[in-house]
Amino acid sequence: MSLQINNLHATLENGTEILKGVNLEIPAGEIHAIMGPNGSGKSTLSKVIAGHESYVPTAGHVLLDGIDISEMSIDERSRAGIFLAFQYPNEVPGVSNANFIRAALQARLPKGEEIDAVAYYKSLYEKMDLLEMDRKFTGRAVNEGFSGGEKKRNEILQMMMLSPKYCILDETDSGLDIDALKIVAKGVNAMRSPERGMLLITHYQRLLDYIKPDHVHVMAEGRIVKSGGPELALELEEKGYDFLKEPALA
Amino acid sequence: MSYQETATAILDEETHDAINIDRTKGDFTFPERNKFDAGWGLSSKTVDYICDVKKDPDWVREFRHKALAVFESKPMPTNWATEDLNNIHFDKIRYYLSDGEKPKRTWDEVPAEILETFERLGIPEQERAFLAGVEAQYDSEAAYSNMKEELTKQGVIFVTSAEGLKEHEEIFRPWFGKVIPTGDNKFSALNSAVFSGGSFIYIPKGVKLKQPLQAYFRINSESFGQFERTLIIADEGSEVMYMEGCTAPKFETATLHSAVVELVALKGAKIQYVTVQNWSSNVFNLVTKRGLAMEDAEVRWIDCNIGSRLTMKYPGVIMKGERARGEVISIALANTGQHQDTGAKMIHAANNTTSNVVSKSISVGKGRSTYRGQVHIPKHLKGCKNNTECDALLINSNSRTDTYPAITVKGNRHATQHEASVSQVSEEMLFYMQQRGLNEGQAMSLAVNGFINDLVREFPMEYSVELKRLIDLEMEGSVG
Amino acid sequence: MSSTTTLPTWLQARQQAAQQRYESTPTPKRGDEAWRFANIKQLNFENLTGIPAPADPADLISRSVGIENPVAKFVFLNDELIHSKISLADAIICLPLVEAFEKHSDLVEQHFMKQETRLGSAKYAALHEASVRNGVFVHVPENQIIDGTIEVHHWISGGVTIFPHTLIVTGKSSKVRVVDIFHSADTETSGLAIAFNDLCAGQNSRLDYIAIQALNEVSRIISINETSTARDARAKGFVLNTGAAWARNESLSRLEGPGAHSDMLSVSIPAREQEYDQRTFQHHVSEGAYSDLLYKNTLYGHSKTVFSGLIFVDEKAHHTDAYQTCRNLLMTDDCEANSMPGLEINADQVKCSHGSTSAQISDEEIFYLQARGIDPVRARQLIARGFSVEVVERLEDEAVESLVLSYIDEKFNGIAKD
Description:
By secondary structure, chain B is α/β, with parallel strands linked by helices. Chain B is 27% helix and 34% strand.
């Protein structure tokens, strides 16, 4: 059981290659982190896995528990178990959070089956309490007028409600103060499970103090250039990304 | 597949269903069983035929003939409106069709086919559930008209316009044609010449109706024009909500619906007029609606246009008394083959009057929506206020939206503001929602519902079968 | 003077055709959409009065005060050049139009009145084309940056009609700023100006055009602006109306390439019986372009304004950003403001909005200034001035901003004396 990325290449619509052969396997039960400088292709990787149409996959595969998801649409991938916590979550004016999450859950049920409203709200409130979110959030339009921290918490809330098999968190720590970061980490840690794999994409080591990864990968120029244990993150923090440029380490 | 292609493909099925109202519901017809048929085309003979069948008093006959002359003298307003109006062939329309029966007071008396029609549309059921009275019009005449007994005791009048002008001339005649003069526009003149059906309502002083009155307009026959005429008078301090719905089967040929609705809210009275327009896409819907609000009175038009081939409708309020209030809340949805040309007219004619216009339109596929507004605040008044907001949502690269407001303010003791915006459901927003597992159609319909959400709340919840589906979509996700 | 110069044949042919077009085009009448709310009576031009005064050119030249050290300066009296001073690089063409017809006939022909006048004054554009005698032609070649300002004064003297024309063409990555100022030689004789300005902003260029209309209050003006903006070009058009009995401005901006940017700005301060009638058109032909219109009117006396603006987005002009705002500040009980902001959107992924407000200065605002010791009359003036300044500041050139403000202040001072 794993999320497996084999030799993944992707270009922009204009032909510029962003991913140049990414290889990565995230077994269920593990947390992996990808670090790397700006423009290394980290965020692109997350969007390509999710099926964003601005990128054209030109080679390679993404296998979810052995099944190739490359031909699936964005929503099929989501329902198959891929969750992407966005770096910049979109606003959906006029649609309340409660309705939105409910609609997403409903989309996962077979035709004709309805969500039990009481159980739904019970579960929603539990998770909101854990993330220290005010009850008023349910009635507010998705991400509209939310602060950066509120948006990120809302992403984690959605993740908890949809309980995906594989979670990709794109720069979830950016724009968070330390208290908000702790709350978000609490939510993510609560999601840790032998059945679930997670991929944290981050620029900074800070997040990894609160969410301990099993493996750390470094991405540069569209490839994974180095992999190691949690100590690699510390090394990066200390030496910066420049040390990767030494040929011996590449 | 590009975003646009996918959107179109999906819109045809799921989104179409979701953001569209079920139009198949009204798409059925029964064989005509008309005893009276004015035949094709319009002439003074047609007018006389209608007068004879309806046994109109002389003053009405004279009124109709004068109106016919005005109609014939006026050009089509294609100098500002769409050329599509030229596709109306007045000689290929039948102006009066009825079975010659009087409107029935109970559904049991209504002929079987007509009863089945309205049952399929859910009207008797709604009447039992929450209405104070119902009038159901089938082609030119009402088949059913009834009101709760206690209202009759309070002096409320709710009858057809024909009954109103004969039985209640003393109330009817002074206001008839006064809010909307015959010559207001070509189609008000047409209606004045051949009107039949519609409601006359009088609410006595101080009577406040708790439940709405409803009219339902049904076209059954092909190549037919429906020209109902409604006059509502709310006497001092009274309150009423009137709702109208409409459907027609989808014929190959064009059908014409051209109503005139006049509202009179006397001192301190309040009239709310709710429309859910769901004509089939072969109907030209050219309607003139205007209210007169006296001192401290309020007229609200709540208008939803979903159907028709071309709708031209600009509900207006003349605020004639101090502190009168006028409001137009409007939702329009234009799909491929449709043009929703709607708007509002706010005429301030007294001090400290206020008006508010909120309009939201959605253009889907090749649909086109247009907002036209007029706000007039004359000299030597003070303290008048207008607020106008119109927002348009486009769902496809072929859709189109236009906004043409006109605001005249004279003098410096007033305030007006107008805001309009056009936006799209962005690709990134769709990606976000799809990443949560909603398919493109579901994501689109959620975004569309989000756009009109705040206006949908203005419609009475229990109301029509049509709007309910729209609300349902929002309700699907909201429990509590 | 140069009026004896033979005109190029292409122009002669076009003038003949234009004369015919003028004669065959009907005069606008009531009920024409493009003249809604307009005072059609103002189109009767037979009642111009006053003897073509023997204005003293020297006097007018001395009264042609603008900014300090313009890079070029022209003074016209009834379309005849009476003064010019040019200090520009040789590569830059900056000439009276008559001279340009002669020396740069091909270049002028390429750009002269290329767009269709579609905002109602087609008849008067034809008359202008048939009758144009003079004006200024500016052509800035590729990469030439003109930091200063070209200043042009147009004087009307007596009951005559002038047809000033300003044609500005900017080459790739060049920059220029031109100011036209319209004056009357006296306060009594009623003249007429049918002015036209043609602005062609080439790729990545920057073109600023400022028109100051300060005619006397018995004169009239129709001024037609047509701007085309190429890829990544930025055009800025500004109109100030303080003078004239009646002014009609038609301004059309075509956005022809991605990244094109057009600012359309105006300040009008009508008083007494003045009437200003402004029609605008933001035409998004290309995708990915930006236009922003801000018109502000401050109305005194029995004055009247009409604003009719349309944002028009062509079918293929996706990713358009277009904004339009018209604000009216109503200063008296007898003024009248008409606004018709419009949108016609045929493309996708478009951000467009328009807004229009009409209001008076609130009592709270006056109270606040009074509480600081300012008398209410002065307070109202300060607020009204501030209302206009917000637009003037968008000119982003100190010298021109203070020139415009000097005309605004003169108008306010005149109003205060009423």
